[in-house]
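Supplementary Text 2. Reproducibility record for the structural model of the 658-residue chain.

All settings were left at their defaults, and a single model was retained for analysis rather than an ensemble. We include the record here because the model underlies the residue-level annotations in Supplementary Table 4.
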Amino acid sequence: MCERIWQYPRQRAFVFLVLSWACFGSFLTGCRDATNPVAVSAGKSAESVAPWTPRSHEGFVGSKRCQRCHEDIYEKYQGHPMAKAMSPSSEITDSIEHRSDLLVFSDPAFLEYEIEVAGDMILHHERVLDDEGSILVRQTEPIAFALGSGARGRSYLLEREGELFMSPLSWYTRDRKWGLSPGFTPADHSQFSRPISDRCLRCHCGQTSAIKGGTAEFPAYEKPIVAELGISCERCHGPGKSHIEFHDGGKTFDNVADPIVNPTKLEAIERDDVCNQCHLQGRFEVLRPGRQPDDFRPGDAISDVWTVFIEGTNVEQDQSTKAVSHVQQMQTSRCYIESGRALGCVSCHDPHGMTHASERAAQFRQACLQCHQTESCTESDTVRQQTSTPDNCSECHMPRLSTNDVPHTTQTDHRIRKNPRIVEPLSDEKNLPKGSETDYQVYEGNTHPIVGQEFERALGIAIVRDATQTGDLELYNTALKRLLPLKNVFRSDLIYLEALALALQRTEQIFEAVDVWKTILEIDPKHGETLLRLGSHFGSEGQLGQADKYLTRYVAVKPHEVDGNLRLSMVKGQLLEIDEAIQYAERALDLNPRNWETRRWLVTLYRDSRQLDKMRQMQAVLDKINQNRLKSDSNHAPPHRNGKSPPLKGTYDSISGY
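Retained model, structure tokens:
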């Protein structure tokens, strides 16, 4: 039976298509208030949705305009890591990582990476080697930007027609070595195809350029992509145009208040949230209804724009932590609690400049002595003098913790514990019933509560994202109990509808899910995730005309997305539009030459189109890859391990946080 099927191109293509769609069935994905931990149920009220006035995005002038009147602060800030949070590649060709002797590494042995400086360009290479060290597959990408100041490390971005993608290669300063970027698993990662979200980009630059296409979360930008590199003055002080007009117009402080924001004069939450807009990484972040990702302005609270679900301090029993978790840790400290929130980020950190390393311990010690007396320290003077800098408060009470989500880095323990040597048992927060209200806690939820049905919306969306990350299918049912009663309230809310449709699909209510997806496209005809999901659904059902329609629209929105091109190619092949099928498959292979599924599919297409030389060449590469796989560590083997094809890799694991 199988032999007869494979004799006919159309049937053969259909079998391959069905198997590949089946792989798509499982998508990959996307702080507790210390003074008064608040379970989500505490935010309920009779109201539905808190009012919100859309924000103006005018009035930004750029930091260079600030320099005219604030020369000293401007020059001082240029030495701060935040000012260097993003750089064009041409400016870092002579940086320490590119003078390293370790510009070539392997992980695992059959995958070789190289970092090359060519004039004012930086090139990143990935090469697949056979068992004799010959190159089977190679990919070279020019780097457009570096993310990070280099103090802890850097990651790198490439650009394709205004869209940004992350390189799999990062520099780790502490160990002075190159390695795979955070989240990239050896041998089984998305190569140069992981998209960078707008939310991520905005925490490394002052302003992006206008958006010209793509999707809401992963846009394509006009050139130049970044209007202002590094964290700008206006990210902490707000748009500067009115401030300049205020002073240029000769107005006096007696008559009108200066419209610029001075964070130190804000209430405690709003003061700290100027920093937390980028330094708070919650378990899940859900935009509140009507908000946009760039709506936050200095003077707002984080919870005015996002509902951020948090999870304790993120410190594990082995005393490792997430690289970005200092906000949650500080808010559990006695210093923060007993100061009535007077202790904040700027109590210890100068936002305008970095103290020299030799003076940093004294600076932090002086901050401690604003509240504490030297005589109150119960440790002996002999022990206190044994710190790297004698009598260093922070070295004892804020030791370094290894990070468990970013390799080769550490983070200062911001819990400011009296005796950090004592390992405290984990609280019961990690053992709460999954999907229960007490399992999801809202950052600052008691101070800026979301109300009634809006709260149920945020919680339902968080549970859907939790289900997608953990694979706990029962959580989708839990989410639906909260989301379904809200359909009339949030019938035009895309974030709500995305979560609802996914929960319906995963609970096998497919007709209802399709109806919701179609509603989303009525609101936003270019909604990328929905186009991909509908195309995938109709492909798995054998409704190839419908699959073709939606996937063609998706590829028009996301032309550099590997899976979209590959899936559209599979549909075209099944429709016997072989030339177009080859076109889309070859585009997918250009974007990711190490995508084995694409290569296997092209073998079929070349055979069906009688391009036998290309078929043999492609098959020869696959055969060598398979031989190499058998000699490799099974933990680092390429896809097709144990004779089974893995799910196709690509950007669908990042779409909209699901």
